[in-house]
Structures are given as structure tokens and as C-alpha cells.
Amino acid sequence: MKSNDEKVAIVGVGHSKFGKRLDVSINELGWEAIKPALQDAGVTQKDVDFYSLGNFGYWSEEILPAVTIGEYAGLSCGSLKTEAACASGSASLKIAVDSILSGNSEIAIAMGIEKMYNSPNGTIIELIGRAGNYFWEFENFGMTFPGYYALYATKYLDAYHSREEDLCEAAVKAHHYGSLNPYAQFQKETSVEECMKSKYVSRPLKLMDSSPITDGAAAVVLARGDVAKKLSDTPVFVEAQGYASGTAYMGRRDDYTGLEASRRAAEAAYRKAGLDGAANNFDIFEVHDCFTIAEVMAYEDLGLVKKGEGIQLLREHQTYRDGKYPANLDGGLKSKGHPIGATGISQAVEITKQLRGEAEKGRQADIRKGRGLQHNVGGTGHYAYVTIYSRGD
Amino acid sequence: MKSNDEKVAIVGVGHSKFGKRLDVSINELGWEAIKPALQDAGVTQKDVDFYSLGNFGYWSEEILPAVTIGEYAGLSCGSLKTEAACASGSASLKIAVDSILSGNSEIAIAMGIEKMYNSPNGTIIELIGRAGNYFWEFENFGMTFPGYYALYATKYLDAYHSREEDLCEAAVKAHHYGSLNPYAQFQKETSVEECMKSKYVSRPLKLMDSSPITDGAAAVVLARGDVAKKLSDTPVFVEAQGYASGTAYMGRRDDYTGLEASRRAAEAAYRKAGLDGAANNFDIFEVHDCFTIAEVMAYEDLGLVKKGEGIQLLREHQTYRDGKYPANLDGGLKSKGHPIGATGISQAVEITKQLRGEAEKGRQADIRKGRGLQHNVGGTGHYAYVTIYSRGD
């Protein structure tokens, strides 16, 4: 195993307010995340050797956001943009981490951003829908993302004798923690009743089962371990990442109650980190809850529980802060918001804050094992990235 | 310095026919590059640990091309798409190389692709134009890429007492070598006279000063050095990459006779490789000639000659095969074609073929130093990537 000095650590985090951000340009929104991240790390732009940006942005007017944000933020180091659909943030993290592990950088920034309101380039739901399978499913059947996840929800509810009310428990949890997170898009509680009364988006999924359209940005400053210990008393190490790709064409998937790419990515991450799975090793989880059903599948795909038992975790509130597997204590994609390219980095920021003990009142997990697990999906399992963090103690 | 076993080497290359490729889908076009690359490396899809795709693609119907191409090609490993404008291919190479150097992969594919004809999403020149500076220059002044490079050409021709005929020499060279490259979009010679008679696109640049709209794909299989020597008798090592970003806003540039980002990227590459610059160290050059003026600036920004002397290299035919600095013996962007996301990988394929001694008749350089230099620009110097290759002997 690598020593802490040879690993890569997060030494600074920054997070914009998520929500409808018509008050800022994409460059200004980026700076809202980069500025606090640099300050938190105690470094300046000149110290940064590389900069990667996760962004989907097909609806954006600024077609080279990595450059315009870099220019606005005073970063003239090498840079690139990456896209892995809703896992773009995790891809950005991978690129920045590898850039350091390779010896090509000492300090790098991984960032993610999305401006989804005020899209000049057509209907955003249509453009997101193309990220399923354009040729077969979008063009022929008009599939968009609520429809894709509704297929999974229909199959899951039927296979495991679950009810829409059970799924709503995920929304209730998300909004509870979102109400405690000052950066969240929705800072208000909800209830199973309210969720059940919300309109259907694609049966059986309702508005309250769905993550919103969001503008937002998040950034982390990464450093090689030996540099990190000089910069920070509380470095959070990126111990391992696992990644896998699934088919774009849903008709080719074997299973509609989980995502095979998530399972393969998780296995790879545990193997690289030398861990025996998720159940006994983590204090805090961030899972990709673009829809409530996605959170349930994540519990199972990560191996917290067996297939069909994820819904039971929700029913028993086992993924609340004081449960067995605290998950999405920041409000998750559902309540914190889901600015596509930013989500993976926002999850990294949250796990860092949790492992440092810096989460806001009422939503700080009890940290005993010193490890956190991040699960980030692109598309409907087109991409899966699973990342393991630790305090290195 | 690293031993060859610790470096990353190209062990397989693949290149599609460049041109107007309405005969294939983007997935089929991708396979045209991946299949020969796998065969050349003697590996199968299962051996590949990671896959990166360089693609610009704002005009594409397939919005997750890394996934659809990966699915079509049988690659289910982790993947991502990257964009660094016209340097997307070099960014893809960086990601795949770093993925191996970091210890996260043993074998990876770096690929690039672009389908530019048959764009369903609006006028392609408009969309490329946005990659300048949307807010100030595109929206207010209607700037597109020929206009941007025409500003550079105007300044250069005036500052260094050069003529449009001199620039046309770059086009003549490009078409000469393009005529010898079976993968090139244009396989025919041209002349200074023909170039001078072609219509102005943006004064002083004419149609024959400009690279074309192109569909194409290219792929390289990369392996860790110790693995590479088992797979290939002729590995080509990626010795070093330098990268830098310039401003998006051209009004902020200090100099309009060269690209500052190119100069900084080149210096970083030479420093990392332990070389004293470009003039005495390379057998073969690939430079980013999106317009003829860009090739002249590249000669100077890379340090082959002093400022103002690049035009003299063209006049004296010093960058032909038998000259002092053989450059773009594949036809360059001008004649081989410029499928944006593929260009950086196409350059890597060409340098590999040259260093292996496998270029087609009439365009194989004399290889004595065993090193090649690649220069790839995104935007108008928004991104610059400079990569050094060697046979490692």
C-alpha cells in the first residue's frame, strides 16, 4: 500500500450556493467555488499545476467553459473539460488525481459546474434526454430521463413488493438534510403525504421523486501527500476510485433493478483500497439519487444490503445520520440540487467536510472509521464512478 | 529520469479515413480507428483498463459519444469524454497516459473523434465560433475562427514583411504530403498560384489557407513500459507533455504574432524531458496548422527559429521531408483534414508511424535522433498541448 505521502489528498474545498442562479455568469459561479477552495487550501492560483472541469453544458452559450472560468479565476495552467454525463465531476476528480499520481502535478484543482436555467440552446429536458440512447430510444420513443428511471422504478417496486410511499421516504430524508445545508437548493422539509400528492412526472415517479434543474459549482484543491501535510492539518485522502461503463442502449441491460456499471465500479474501488466491501468500512455515504429509485438501487449496488433490501433501509430510516449507513446528509441530488457537472465534486466536498467534522449542525455524522464512500452515476448507468476517501489515520 | 519500463508507450495505432464520412455513424467511425489499434497492439477489449475520448461535438446528435462508441467497440472499462477544443485529442492522450503513470491502469486507449458534416444542431461555423470568446467577441462582433486567425495573419505579415504568397507555401507543402497519405481528406497537390486564386474567407486568409470541415477518428493503445515491451518491438514512448491555457478574450493577449500558451507549453515539455529546446532534438514535427499562419507561428513558438523567421522556413522549404525540420509529413490539418477531437490523436499516430519507419512512400522522414514533437492548439491559443515522443533508445 502507498504511504500517505504518496497518495493524493483534498486540502481545500469550495461550494457555490446551488439553485436558480440567474444572478451570475458561469465564470462568476465558478469563482464562487474556486475562491473558497484556494483560501481553504492556503494556496494561490500560481501554485496550481493543472485544472480540470467537469461540465455537461450542451445548452451553454460559453462553449469553452474551462478556459473562460480559468481566465476569470486567474488560472493559466494547463486545463481541460471533461464530460461523463452526471458523473462528470467524478471524472474531473479522476483526471486531477491521476495528474498528481503520475508525477505531472503537485497541486491541481478538480472542479465541476453547470448552469441549467436560462439555457439558450433549446429545451433542456430534450438535451438531457439525448444522453440516454439517442439513436434507438430518444429519437424513436421520445425517452427522457424520468422515463428511463421510471422503468427501473416500475420493475423494482414490482419485484420487491414495494410501494411509492417507500420511495417517498428518500425524498423526505433528502429534504430533511437539505433544510440543514445552507448551500442546498431546497431548504425545506417535506413529508410522505406531500410527496405522494405531487404530480406524476413519469409513473410511478412523481415530481418529489425527482432531482431538480440546478445551477451550481464546486471545487476541490488536491495535493500530493507530502505537500498536503504542509498545507493542511486535516487532509482527506482519495484512497481509490473504481469506474465502469454500461451500455447506452437500455435494451441491452440484463437487469432493471440495479445498475451493473455501479456494481463493477464499486468492486473495483474496494479491491484497489483493500477493503471487503461497503457494509463495515464507512462512516458516511454520498449516493447518486437523481431519482428516489436511484438511491435505493445504489444501496444495493454498493453492497450495503442484498438485492431487494434497499427499500427496507429507507423504511427503517437506516440511512439517516444516526442509522447504520448515513447517506446524503447534505440533502443529496434531490434537495441540495443536481447541477450535472458539479455533482461529483459537490459530493467530494461533502465527504471532506464530514470527515473533517465540519458539516453544519444537525447533519454531522459520527466519524469513527475515518472513511467515506462516494457513488456517482452518469446517464442511466452509462458511467459509474465510485470513490473512497479517508482521513489516512 | 524514468526507465523505459516506468514510462508509457504507444503500442498500437489506428486511423480512419478522414473526409466527408456520411457513410458511417459516429460509432462505426470510431471502430474504424479502434479496431486497427487493438490489432496493431495485439490486445483485445478485455485488456483495456481505461478509455478516454477527445471530442468537441456540440453539433452531435449522440451526446454521450464515449459511451456509445465504447458500447459499439465492446469496451466496458471506465471511460470519459474530454474537450480542450481543437486540442481535445492531446487532452485525451494526457488523461490516458496519466491513468497509467498513476498506477490506475496498465493498458489504456486514447482516442479522438469528430463528425462535422451532417450536423443536426445548427450552423457548424457558428458553433465553432463560440469557442473563441462568446460573450465579447462572438456575440458582439460575430467573430468566427477564420476571423480570429486573420487578425494574427494581418499582424504577422505586416510585422515581418511577408506576403500572402509566403503563407500559401504552407498549403502547397500540406497538399504535397496529403497526396501521399491514403488517410488524408485531400489527396491532391496544389500550387501557390492556385492558393492565391482561391476566394478570401477572411482577409488575408483564403480558402486554401484554411483547414477543412472533416469527419474522422484516430486511436492509440498505450501501455506501461514493462507491458509495452512484451507487446511491441517498436514501442514509442510518451516522454513528456507540456500544457498551458491562454485567455479566451483575445483583447487580453499581449502579442498577435504568436501564441503565448504554445510557448509556455513547449517550455514545460522541454523542461520535463530534459531537452534544450526543439532546434536540435527532433526528427519529425507535427504542428497545428488550422490555418497557414498558425503553422508559421508554431515554428516560432516551439523555438525552431526566432520570431519573424518562421516565414523563412516556408520560403526555403526547410520543413519539407528533406529540410532541417520536417513538419506535417501527413498533410497536416490543412490537407489531411481537421476533425477537431481527433486531430491530437491523429498527430500521435503519425509521429508513431514516423518513428517506427512505417510512413508511406515519399513521406517517411529520416529518423536519427529517435524523437518527435507534437504541437496541438485549442481555440486561438486557449489551450496548448506539446508532447514529446521517443523510441527510447
Notes on the protein architecture:
Two copies of one chain form a homodimer. Chain A has a domain at 4-121 and 213-231: Peroxisomal Thiolase, Chain A, domain 1, CATH 3.40.47.10. In chain A, α3 packs across α14 and α7 (164-178) crosses α11 (292-301). Chain A is built from 14 helices and eleven strands. With 393 residues, chain A is α/β, with parallel strands linked by helices. In chain A, β10 and β11 form a beta hairpin. The radius of gyration of chain A is 19 Å and the shape is globular. Chain A has a nine-stranded mixed β-sheet, with helices on both faces. A two-stranded antiparallel ribbon of chain A has the order 5-6. Chain A has helices at residues 26-41, 65-73, 88-101, 124-129, 134-141, 145-159, 164-178, 192-197, 225-231, 260-273, 292-301, 310-315, 332-336, 343-356, and strands at residues 8-15, 50-54, 78-83, 107-114, 200-202, 205-206, 216-224, 236-245, 284-286, 371-378, 383-390. The mean pLDDT of chain A is 95. The interface between A and B is large, with 62 and 62 residues.
Notable characteristics:
homodimer, 393 residues, alpha/beta, Peroxisomal Thiolase, Chain A, domain 1, 9-stranded mixed sheet, 37% helix
